[in-house]
Structures are given as structure tokens and as C-alpha cells.
Specification:
This protein is an all-alpha fold. It contains 6 helices and no strands.
């Protein structure tokens, strides 16, 4: 278990460091919000989850996405705004999502500091429906 924790922590930190190094070159098309220093929280929380549990992160969601098993290549493609990204290149750093992996991205009111959830079960219900992605994409485009 400790080795698994360490590997996950190391992967997340290295990815975050590389993103931080590349970001000033303007190759990454979305603003990034690194979670350096917060890796252990995401790794520990995701270790305690069952495979079918759903997670919703904050605007610093890189660590949570990777700790829950999100696809690294899709995450990087999302940061670069590619259609092969986890949100088809429309969400960027703050909206990492993987419906199959039960990662719901952010359920929020478009400000990094706050979140809006009308009912505690609402995000889980939306994630279980295919329209979750459709609604989310429409909102980010407009």
C-alpha cells in the first residue's frame, strides 16, 4: 500500500512540475491551477473510495483526477485544448472529467472560490446521466 501511495504521489508531483515548466511558454491554452503540495489529500481520499464512488474536485483538480485513475494523456490533451482531451478540449485545467472513471470534474458556479450544489445528490445524479457532459459542454461554450 505504501508503495502505491508513493508512486501516485510521485506521478502527480512530476506531472505538476512539468505543467508548471511548460505553462510560461504559452503552449498550454488554458489557465492551469496546479495542486502541488495537495497531492497527499487526493491520494489518501481516492485510496479510501470504492471503485464505483464518484468524486467532484475543486478548481485544483489535477491531483484528484490522477489519483482516482484519470487518463494522463487525456488530461494533458485537455490542457492543450485538443479534442482528444477528457472534456474534448473545452474544459481546460479546471474541468477534468471521466464519466467511466467516476470523476465528475467541478460542480460549481464558475468561480474558483465557490461551489453551488442545489441538492447533495445532484452531482451524482447528473454524472450517472449522459446528458451531464452535454449540459456541461453547452455551458462552457456559451
Amino acid at each position: 500500500m505504501i508503495e502505491r501511495f508513493y508512486r501516485s504521489l510521485y506521478l502527480i508531483r512530476r506531472v505538476e512540475e512539468e505543467i508548471a515548466a511548460v505553462y510560461p511558454t504559452d503552449k498550454i491554452k488554458s489557465p492551469v491551477h496546479p495542486s502541488i503540495g495537495q497531492e497527499a489529500v487526493s491520494v489518501a481520499v481516492c485510496e479510501a473510495l470504492k471503485p464505483d464512488d464518484i468524486v467532484f474536485g475543486s478548481y485544483r483538480s489535477h491531483a484528484l483526477y490522477l489519483a482516482k485513475g484519470g487518463d494522463l494523456k487525456k488530461m494533458i490533451a485537455e490542457l492543450y485544448g485538443k479534442v482528444t482531451g477528457c472534456a474534448k478540449g473545452k474544459g481546460g485545467s479546471m474541468h477534468l472529467i471521466d464519466v467511466a472513471g467516476r470523476i465528475g470534474g467541478r460542480w460549481h458556479d464558475d468561480s474558483p472560490s465557490g461551489g453551488l450544489c442545489l441538492r447533495p445528490e445532484a452531482p451524482a445524479q447528473e454524472l450517472n446521466r449522459r446528458e451531464f457532459l452535454w449540459r456541461w459542454r453547452r455551458r462552457t461554450i456559451s
